[in-house]
Amino acid sequence: MNQVSLFRLYVLRALYLLVVIGLSVVLLPQVISHTKPWEFFQGAETCMLLAFWLLCMLGVRYPLQLLPVLMWELIWKTLWLILVPLPLWLAGKLSDAMLPDVFAIGCVVLVYIAMPWSYVYHQYVNNLFSKSVLPQQ
Fold this sequence. Notes:
Order of helices and strands: HHHHHHH
Number of strands: 0
Shape: globular
Low-confidence stretches: none
Radius of gyration: 18 Å
Strand content: under 5%
Number of helices: 7
Number of domains: 1
Helix content: over 70%
Distance between the termini: 30 Å
């Protein structure tokens, strides 16, 4: 019941590959060409994105094993969209300068589409509640 179709595996691989290509275009030139030390948050963000990029490269080969990486991406982006731009938009204070970030992070909809939800449920949610936390005696 928790099998993933070959088509869904290819969709996941395509998503990982899209992330790898996208981050290669945006991130790698910044990493290669930087000449002065980064400030703390810029350095932390760059290193986290590089780690994500490397894990997504592995995801092309092992799409199901790297699902927690996509789930992390899905959760933080969804939280950001709900907690940061949504209140600003509802208050009529969302600036035009923020729109490119909202659009880029809003592409998380692709993760929602590609995610094999039945597999996620059976592998993570169902197993979490079906296994006893206490050892059997």
